[in-house]
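Dear U.,

For the methods section draft, I wanted the exact inputs and outputs in one place so we can describe them consistently. I've listed the two proteins in the order they'll appear in the manuscript figures. Please don't edit the token lines directly; just add comments below if something needs changing.

First protein:
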Amino acid sequence: MKRCKSLLILVLCSVVSMLSMACSNDENNKDPKESVLPSAENDALTKLWATSPFDVDMTARQEVFKQLQKYADECTSTMFSSYLSGSEQLVASQQKTIPAIYCYNQAFERVLEGLKKDKPAFGEAYIYMLYNMGYVVKTASGAFCVDIFHRRGAELAPYLDFCASTHIHQDHRCQPLEEAMKELRKPVLQNYLDASEYSFTSLRDKDYTIGDFQIHTFITNHNNGSTNVPVTVFKIDCGSTGGGLVIMHSGDSNFIPEQFASVKDDDIDVYIPRYAPNALTENNVIGNVFKPKYVLLSHILELTHTDPSSSRWTLAQGLERASKLNCTQTYMPFWGEKMIWKNNQLSK
């Protein structure tokens, strides 16, 4: 009898052990999509996309900004840097557990999807804000990007005609994207790569024609201190295919009027400047050297920076600065948002 009981206990233990292993395997094989953050935490960016930078009533948008700012405040520069350089296992975990990183990845998915599938009509241009100062522009005949800084940036390469980077600082370039473009024999416009390997490297004013795009570049200062580096400004005419859109991106330019002389009084439709550390030096060029129809103020919530004192400008600071620039149509788009240029106007 005792022997029967012992055998019964042994069998039961084996069954429990097998069930435990099966459950463990099920857990390990779960679809990652089932393990993402609860919707109450991760839908802030989706809510933002239901609004528009051009909304007259900003109430709903500002409420979402409060949540997004909270996400950013909870994501330290150390956490974000570990994500950028981390293993795939760490990255997968952080994308599921850190709301700001979840949103960062979610924005890339939306922009990549648009680049793949959106079909602008003749005379239209789609402008996608990816992250920080990274923008992608698509017309009926081609696409390009400027200042992409994203862990997954290389995935954009097959869908671009060229990419551009204003300067060498890490938050304005994506080395994997540069290498992917080189592999595909596509132009990488910048001022810091080896010219023997990247033929579109220049530290001087240059003019290029790539497909239907006419590009004018010129060199400006980043700042007047020890961290100064050359910053290339890109003025890109998208041609009739892109509705005649002329877009200018100045990266971290220091807004020295004399350095913008080659675009003095030009008809610039959309200008993309950074939030200037020295308050309102943006207006040294905006409304003075040239008068853009639209300004898209950028370089807000750069997560590799520590806090506002080290240039992690808050959403509230961005809105406040945008209201003071010398262009009545100044807006502050955010991660993953798409804007459409049509009939000489920019809209959602």
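Second protein (the one for the lower panel):
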Amino acid sequence: MIAEQQVMPIGKVGKAHGVRGEVTVYIDNDVFDRVDADYLVLRIDGILVPFFIEEYRWRNDSTVLMKFCDIDSMQQARDLTGCEVLFPRHLADEEGETDIRSIVGFELYDGDTPVGTVTGIDSSTINILMEVRTPQGTDILIPAGAELITSINMEQQRIVMALPVGLLDL
């Protein structure tokens, strides 16, 4: 069974393409372009399922037409529409570079105080923000500036920061 911490989100499956079982995959993380992988993981009804890649071709900078093994009809491809696409972390880590989106799922601490879980990354502006869900269920934004980060433990999936006083009260 694949554990959540073993994968990182890289996109979503769009609609079926053609009648051979191809799907459109919208990629929002360049790790798929940088690292070769024999398989991707799809979240189907909350379960992480590996799918081996038969072939793929880039349609543009962020869209891939992909054919998974054993998905051979338009109906099978349609059943995958909307599924989240995840990439195996162990393959991404081999490159030696870590993409900021790989910290999704990590626990965030302000010193020794738990703040919440990183649920997403907002990189729409020059100032990258971590989307964090607190234990109370509130969603907050925390700047991902290197000067605020004390340590990142990839194995424990833990980020320790030194947040400015009052930031969590906003």
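Candidate sentences for the figure legend, describing the second protein: The longest strand covers residues 47-58. The mean pLDDT is 89.

Thanks,
Y.
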